[in-house]
Design a protein that fits this description.
The protein is built from eleven helices and no strands. With 237 residues, the protein is mainly alpha-helical. It folds into two domains: 41 residues, Rubrerythrin, domain 2, CATH 2.20.28; 194 residues, no CATH class. Helix 6 packs across helix 11 and helix 9 runs antiparallel to helix 10.
Amino acid sequence: MICISCGFEHNEKFCPNCGEKSDVPKITFISTIQTSLSTLVEMDKGFLYNLKNLTLRPKVTIEKYISGKRKGIFNPISFLIISVTVYLLIESFFKTKNFASKEAVDLVRDDFSYKIGASGGRFIYDYFKYFWIFTVIPLSLITKLFFKRFNFAEHITINSFILGQVTLIIGSLSFAIFRFAILFNPFVYLGLIWLLSRTFYNPKNKSDSVIKAFTTIFFFMFFLFISITLIGLIRLI
């Protein structure tokens, strides 16, 4: 047979020259849907594989991905984006607004600090998807500072897995039950501490990873507070 990619003649399952699969099926609407669903729902690979293994074996799963053993593991950035999207769909389903409208903020004439917080919160609510995904960068800067084992790009990968897992499992579930907005949800921050401590677990010093995880999330929450304050102040000015 002739390879459809490089034209090399062979009789193997995969082309010896370029690695292209020999029996590539024709793309149809049904095959596209099947491929997309299998990537998301199969327990031995894809999105649900991430959910299962980041819950049971977060350290092993993340270290496998970083070391290059990525077969079956869903891309961390895509995982984070899908997780945030699912959370927003759940939030939209319950039609709950967690921040004051611009008109409500304008009615409060005497409390400037309230206006700053409400205005910043309103902005975050409107652009939450982009803001929450962006927070993986400062979170990675902080974890890089305290957990020095990996480079910054690898910390982006680690925190994309962690933030996506916590957003989908803890953020979505607790919002559906308690209506906690994710930014003010204590379970989310506890979940981040738990996953960080498990991912960076040091068997030689068992308390070290827990202390560093607590410190990391403290600075992360401080960053969120400063960000909302600055955004609110800029909008009011």
